[in-house]
Every structure is written in structure tokens, then in C-alpha cells.
Task: structure prediction
Amino acid sequence: MNAALEGKAYPPVRFRVDEDHVARFAAAVGDDGSSVPPTFVTVPEIAAGLVRAIADTELGLDFARVVHGEQEYEWSRPVRAGETLEVRATIESIRAKGGHEFLTLRTRMLDEDGEEVVSARSSLVVRGSG
Amino acid sequence: MKAYADASGDQNPLHQDDAFARVVGFPGIVAHGMFTMAHLASCVVAWLGDPAALKRLRVQFRAPVYMGETIVAGGTVRSLDAETRRAVLDVWVRLERDGAAEYPIRRGEAEVQLA
Result:
């Protein structure tokens, strides 16, 4: 990966929390669907960050070698069905260690009033070929 | 896994394609780490009885979960601030493989607001 891209911000994504989408996600994770599952925020996080990183030819992320290393979410409040979030992803760090590479993406999700709803940090491991 | 891939947008073939998973060194399809974390988060919320009470959750994915395995989530209260009713939990996800316990998530941390 191109370590010079540390700090790169991807263009914000507007993401509507669709009720049917929430229901499909809840069913997929075995949740009863009585509220929005806490980790539904993975969906906008992937749309704004991971999808962009995979498509980023400057970055050179080999998704075929990626496994998920660490994940953190901090919720100011639960996400609500029907609301629209502005999702801002940045490359927090790119590191190499022990034959593997590590990409950490930081994602902030703001509501329509500009208040932060969720902050996410996702660390991906790009497994070395050796 | 297909339903989770479609709902989440994570279409990594590691989670859907057995032949691909074997080529990259696993014995078969690996569950999404986020699927395991989703289960853990739902368990914490069910215990709290309030989705708004889960404030922070941090995990490391330590071992893969394969198709057909059963995961169990749990945790203990590490600390509690009696005044604010904020608690920090040690949380984990465990499974049995070949008669031994494996921890896909061993030392997760959750911060919660108790009622």
C-alpha cells in the first residue's frame, strides 16, 4: 500500500437509514429487529470507507488478502430508521509489520443537525504472501 | 453469510467462496468478523434492555469462525462508576473446536450506561 496516503479523506457519503435495509440486516445477524442493531452502522462505514479504499488505485489495497483485525464503535446515540447520515471516512494509518500490512480507517457519522452520532475505527490486515 | 454480505456490503469472497478461502490459506469459508461482533453487540444490548445504553464497543478478531460452528457471547463487569452508573465490561465470543475452546473475540471492551 501507498503509505503516503495517510490522512487522506474520502468524499463524504450521504446515507439514508432505510427501514427495509435495517430489517434485512437484523435478519442476517439474527437480531429480533425491535430496534436498529448497533452494528448496522457497519453498512454506512463500508460504503464510505472500505468501498472507496478498494477502488482507490493510488492506495493499492489488495482486498483478496484482507482480513479484519480490530473494530471499534462509539455511539453518541442509537441510529434511527429513516434518518440520513453524512459519513466521512479517512485513512488514519498505514503500517507494515512482520510481513503484513495494516490499514486503519476512521469514519465519523453525523446527523442532519451536524451532531456526531457514531465514530468508527476499523483496522484491516493485509496478509503477506510469505 | 450471503445474507450478511448483501445486507452489509462486504463482498469479500473469503466469506462466500469456499475455493477462494482455501486458496488464501483457510480450510473453508470464514464468517465476517463483523457478523461475530454484531452478535456480541446484540447480546450486550439484550442484557442492558436498552439500545441507547451501549456507548462503545471495541474488539480484536483473534480467530476465524467457520461455517457450521456455534458462537457464544458473554462478558463480565470490569468496573462500575457508582455515581454516573457507567460500567466497563470485558466481553468475549467463544466457540468449541476439536474439543477445545477458541476465542474469536477474547478481550473485547464495552462501555455501557446502566439504568
In short: Residues 3-126 of chain A form a domain with the Thiol Ester Dehydrase; Chain A fold (CATH 3.10.129.10). Helices of chain A lie at 19-28, 42-55. Chain A has a mean pLDDT of 95.
